[in-house]
Structures are given as C-alpha cells and as structure tokens.
Amino acid sequence: MRILKPERAEGLMRFLNRYNLPMQNLDLLDRALTHSSYAFEHQLPYDNERLEFLGDAVLGLVVSEYLYHEFPRAREGVLSKYKATIVSRPVLGKRAQEMGIGDLILLGKGEENAGARERPTLLGSALEAVVGALYLELGITGIKRWLVREVFEPGRQMSHTDEYADFKSLLQEWAQKNFQTVPEYEVVSESGPDHSKTFEVVVRVNGEILGHGEGPRKKIAENQAAMRAYWKVTHANGGGVPPDDFPSFLNKSTPAETEEPPQADVGN
Fold first, then answer.
1. Which residues does the annotated region (Disordered) include (predicted)?
2. Segments in the chain forming alpha helices (H)
3. Residues 144, 147, 249, CA angle at the centre, nearest 5°?
C-alpha cells in the first residue's frame, strides 16, 4: 500500500467534501485516479483500469434505471440511444473536467507532456474509475443520488447540444428502415476566415432535402441538419423547427417511437 502524501490526501478529501461523499478509504480513491503510465513509471502494482471496468458497469446499470423511470413512455431503442450519449466518453470527459477530476489524476511524465490531462477519453475513464471506487465503499444506494445529480443530469443537458447528441445515427436508422438507404450530407456553403469558419450543410434522404444545419465544424453542422431532419420525419406535422429542449421525443410526442402499445380492454 502506498503512503499518501499530506497534500495528496488533502486534495482527495476536498473532492469528497465538495460532493458530500462519505468515503473513508482514500487509498481506494487514490487508486481510481492513478493512470497506468504513472503506475509503470513508479513501479506500482496497481492502476485504475480494474476500477474503470467496474465503474463502467455501475454507470450502465444506474443510468438504465434512471432513464427507465424518467421516461416511462420511451421505447427501448430510444432509451438505448440516450443512455449511450449520457455515458459516452466525450460527455463523461467534459463532466470530469468540470468536476476537477483532471487535476487529481496521477500521470506519467510522457502522458503529462503529451497533454493527456485534457484528453476527454482519459478524463472519462478516470470518472468511471472513481465511480467504481465509490461503489465498492458506498454501494449503489450510497452513490445513486450523486450520480443522478452530478453526472446524469448534466449529461442530459449536454446531450441536447449539437456536439454531443448523435442524431446522425438516429436519422440513418430511420432511413434504412423506411427507404433501405442512408442519408447523404452536402456542404452547400462555407463562410468566414479560416480560423473561424461557418459551414452550412443539407441532408438528403432518398433524394429529398430533409434538413439543413450550420456550425463551426462540418460534423456539428451535419448533426444539426440530422436533428432537424429527424424532427421533421418523426413528428405528425411534418415540419417546423425543433424546440431548444429537443429531443423532446423522449417524453412527449412521436407515438411510433415512445408510446407503449395500447392495452386490451378487459372490462370492469
């Protein structure tokens, strides 16, 4: 067992106190924040990868239960898409950065010099490992509210933005199901200087333009176009602009996607 330096222990305690987490085993939390590169350089017999494996499973279980209760009308496919976004590495990485986890990760010199501390995949993995460590000491009941408040709810907000929500996959599934084809994206204009461009994109399905989008990167513009197209094809009025809190199909509208099948009338 590694003896923690006072400043290391204080940093870990500040993190726990900030989120009112009654964890006592600082060695376990320290392990969750020890990257394999640091363990290799310092010849430690452990790193955070096993805890990352455990935390990934815990996140999957708890977010599934959370979405099941939060969106009682949503179909399995919709819930799966939303789950995949909320616990994706970009979303988890962003949240880990906001929570200050990046400052607590122990990295090897090579990874540190390569800027790994800012890497979303590494940050997301560290958050998963922290979840695994918290689960081992506090159990599901002890961390469920914290996960909802600090991980899932912020993740939901991020999943509503063009950068994180994967509407391209949703639109592709719809196109394959209905037309046995895939959407086609075309950049119709570029404006602005090289360091601050704006891309305008249209998306076609079966030859018809269904949506357009704009963004500072092609990927964001394409996803916005897919979002508007998906809104158009899954809403009864067949058009209009999605509201700011889209995807509202998760708890409103779109019978084909979200409503439970009608129950048989068995009488009184």
1. 236-268
2. 6-18, 26-32, 36-41, 49-70, 76-86, 89-98, 109-113, 120-147, 153-159, 167-179, 218-234, 255-258
3. 105
Which residue in this structure is represented by tokens 């998963």?
Answer: 128
Catalytic residue among 56, 111, 150, 222: 56
Q: Mind listing the domains of the chain with CATH numbers?
A: 6-159 (1.10.1520.10), 167-255 (3.30.160.20)
Q: Is 56 a catalytic residue?
A: yes
Per residue in 48-65, pLDDT tens? 999 999 999 999 999 999
CB 241 within 8 A of CB 258: no
Taking residues 125-154, what's their average pLDDT? 96
What distances in angstroms separate CA 66 from CA 5, 79, 128, 144, 145, one per listed residue?
38, 10, 17, 9, 10
111 is catalytic: no
